[in-house]
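Re: your question about Tetratricopeptide repeat protein

S., sorry for the slow reply, the queue was backed up all week. Below is exactly what I fed in.
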Amino acid sequence: MISTRVMKFEALMKLVDNGELEEAREIAQSYVEAQPRNFVGYLCLAYVAFAGDKDKVAAEAYVEETLRHDPRCEEAMRLGVMIWTGSDNAAREKYYIEKGMRYASREAFYPYRMGILLEAENLTEAAPYFEKAAGLDARNADYVGKYSNVMYQLGKKKVARDYMQRALGLDPNHTENVRNFAQWSFEDGHFKMARDLSERALKTKHDAESARLVRQAAPTSNWLVAMVLRIGLLFIAPFKGRKTAAKMMLGFVLGLWILCIPLFFISNLVGIIGVTVVLALVVVAGPNQQWNTRKTTTRRRNPESPSKTSRKASHTSTTS
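Result:
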């Protein structure tokens, strides 16, 4: 059951978010005057200062006053994190995150924020926090998807794929998750899944990044392109970084040329035949890749459905 004090705070938040700043400020001050030892008035003033006045210093002062009256006030700790999220003062954000993990240990928000804070410096150190967040709130697609992506970056692909399926089950159209999963499905050579997810990403959010994913995956519908890229993927697999179609193609050429070297020990003719076969595959697969990309782009620009075309045709025949 939600306490009356929390209900007051949530009602005041709505006022501030709707632009009723002065009314919200008066209400918050009236709470303090009526009950100066009660945390709710200071908590309300903290939100007014943060979301209304954009004054982080004043907002934090009210947060600290709130915690002085109620050290376990979860709303105050969460607000403290929000005040310093994205700022240069990571130490203050970490201070409130640690308070949250101590006093609100069942809330997934705090370990998730700790993971975000640490991932730029040490992804391995951040991973347990993302795992904890995904465990505490297993119905949150943000948390589950983030842990999946972190596991993929750390090379734990089996765990990553398991959590990917969970995240897609929770929200099949979560833009960031779908994009991430489309990219690393392509990098793993799961081209059918990459095509499906990139198409879904474009429907979810039609922008440059989604379009790039579609252009990247679309050519793999051609079996020859898919075969060449998969072979190239074998040769570039040990290298870190994003595995693009260009890198896969380069891996195919260099890898098979290296494998062709022993053929020259048999005879020059056999070696030349091997190199020629590699070049022929590249020459055939390259234009196929570009052609499939152009076809996909054309369909995007002319999205007229077959049913509409057939209706137009029937209308024309009737008229004539």
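The longest helix spans residues 268-301. Confidence is low (pLDDT under 50) at residues 288-294, 296-301, 303-320.

Happy to talk it through on Thursday.
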